[in-house]
Amino acid sequence: MTSRYLTTEQNRKIRQWERWNRNYFIFAFVALTIILVFSSQLGLSSGESWGPLGGLIAVLITPIIVLQLRLACPACGHKIGWQAKLMAPDQCKACGTFLRSKSQ
Ligand SMILES: [Zn+2]
After folding, report:
1. Alpha carbon of residue 60 to chain centroid
2. Mean per-residue pLDDT pooled into runs of 10, the chain (104 residues)
């Protein structure tokens, strides 16, 4: 079986996804930290009420889930987002295509 690789264009899309995914993850992490540290000063968690704070956390986390769900193998369309963490996996589990271009 010959190993298949992505075209330069497909590779570019995967790398772009990785950049977005990583940048957003860092942004969400920083934002969550700030929110948690300053939540009492901002009046987000007053005693038992976690409503506004919980809502903000959900708003920050939802795009991470959306980003993971959006990543699909360019060769076969198989959703590979959940194999990925911060980076795309090396190889698609469904069709065996290496998720990078051959030149690299
Ligand atoms: Zn595939």
Report:
1. 12
2. 87 94 95 87 66 86 91 92 80 93 75
Q: Is the pTM of this model over 0.85?
A: no
Domain ranges of the chain: 5-101
How many whole angstroms separate alpha carbon 97 and alpha carbon 95? 6
Cα-to-centroid distance, 90 and ligand 1 (Å) = 11
Distance from the alpha carbon of residue 35 to the mean position of ligand 1, in angstroms = 39
Distance 73 CA to ligand 1 centre (A): 5
CA–centroid distance, residue 6 to ligand 1 (Å): 10
Instruction: Yes or no: say if 58 and 50 are a contact pair by the CB < 8 Å rule.
Output: no
Nearest in space to 66 (alpha carbons), one of 90, 53, 55, 82 = 82
Strand positions, DSSP E, 1-60? 5-6
Query: Position 103: which residue type?
Result: S
Structure tokens that stand for 52 in this block: 């506004």
Distance 80 CA to ligand 1 centre (A): 8
